[in-house]
Design a protein that fits this description.
elongated; Heat Shock Protein 90; alpha+beta; four-stranded antiparallel sheet
Length: 384
């Protein structure tokens, strides 16, 4: 308990620290952007003063050398448009001259620049005024998107870390479940061997033969379960088999051992359908789905297993009249640990999906479900 609490505290400290660091980086970038923007405005004001000097000096037909240098060198990359008091273009810098022949383009540029920066008014000294409209320099525009790029990189990095952590956790869980399954198979094997021996002894005694037959059936069943658990974690062998016969066998076994309050119905084609299967694992899937349906009906209701073929695909529908599933949980029910029962590990449907999709390259899904009326689960496999 203490270890888990400390781990959660450390995790939240790391998250909070990361958030603070990201916030400081973004704030620093924003501050730098504003300082750079203010510096550009200072340059534009210097340039406007130079324009004022020109307006004054022109009457004497001379231009101060310093003023000329300011005009030429101050504005290197910032796009600028100078408009006189009549709204006519006076001069421009860092804009393609061919674009300025169209008055609509000039109006659009003026509106754009005005939205980016406040215009600067210039008094030319002869009661005339001009207005300087300027936009952000290319460097400033690139800098404007830097926080977004930085944020995107951080999100991508966080996503990579998350998926790496989740993959590691899933791999660890799979390793744990595989170990538990194999250990379970090993533990069952010892008493099972003893049961086989005791059965042979009972055969020599004056015991009702029907009792021995039933015991042998359950022993065979335990051997099948042991074999199933031993296969978890390793690639199963698939063989061409009649899926109709295997489905019928699994169905009949469950029917004979289920409540008499369940009305079973089996709909199968009257011919063989060959599919690449592992018999033990496929039977396990059918049993898990049927048992899940019986639990959903609380041991009373109608249960239907229907197998159909459409071209090269086989569909197995298992329908019940149970409590139903909310649409938002259609995918959740196949996740490990998800269960609505008070007692249960939430592994049955997760295991069924793994057997169908990972081992048999098929699909399993909730076909239909309605709260209070029932659910239909569907398995899709390809024919051999």
């Amino acid at each position: 308990m203490t270890f888990s609490f400390n781990r959660n505290v450390i995790r939240w400290i790391i998250i909070a620290t990361s958030f603070i660091i990201i916030s400081l980086i973004l704030w620093n970038t924003y501050t730098f952007f504003q300082d750079f923007k203010q510096e550009e405005r200072s340059k534009m004001k210097t340039w406007s003063v130079a324009l004022t000097d020109i307006g004054t000096i022109k009457s004497n037909d001379e231009v101060n050398e310093v003023t000329s240098h300011v005009i030429t060198e101050t504005i290197i990359s910032t796009p600028v448009i100078v408009i006189d008091k009549d709204g006519e273009l006076s001069t421009s810098r860092n804009i393609d001259e061919s674009l300025l022949t169209d008055s609509n383009v000039i109006k659009n540029l003026v509106a754009k620049f005005k939205s980016e920066n406040t215009p600067i008014e210039v008094n030319m000294g002869t009661a005339s005024k001009q207005f300087i409209y300027y936009g952000n320099s290319p460097l400033l525009n690139r800098l404007k998107y830097y926080p977004l790029a930085l944020l995107l990189i951080i999100i991508l990095f966080a996503a990579v870390v998350y998926f790496f952590y989740r993959s590691s956790k899933i791999a660890e869980q799979n390793k744990l479940w595989t170990g538990m399954a194999k250990e379970t198979a090993h533990q069952i094997g010892t008493p099972l061997s003893s049961l086989v021996g005791w059965t042979e002894i009972l055969k020599t005694e004056n015991v009702n033969r029907d009792y021995i037959v039933e015991i042998e059936k359950d022993i065979d069943r335990l051997q099948t379960i042991t074999e199933r658990f031993s296969k978890i974690g390793s690639a199963p062998t698939l063989k061409k088999m009649d899926i109709v016969a295997i489905t019928k066998l699994s169905y009949e076994y469950l029917k004979s051992r289920s409540s008499k309050l369940i009305n079973f119905e089996l709909v199968l084609p009257e011919r063989e359908i060959t599919v690449h299967l592992n018999e033990q694992l496929f039977s396990w899937t059918i049993e898990n789905l049927v048992k899940n349906a019986i639990d959903a009906m609380k041991g009373k209701g109608n249960l239907k297993v229907e197998l159909t073929q459409l071209e090269s695909r086989v569909y197995i529908n298992i329908s019940d009249t149970g409590k139903g599933i909310h649409k938002s949980s259609f995918h959740k029910i196949f996740e490990p640990g998800y269960t609505t029962k008070k007692r249960g590990w939430g592994l049955g449907l997760s295991l069924a999906r793994r057997i169908v999709e990972d081992y048999h390259n098929g699909k399993i899904k909730v076909l239909t479900s309605e709260i209070g009326k029932g659910t239909t689960l569907q398995i899709l496999l390809k024919t051999a």
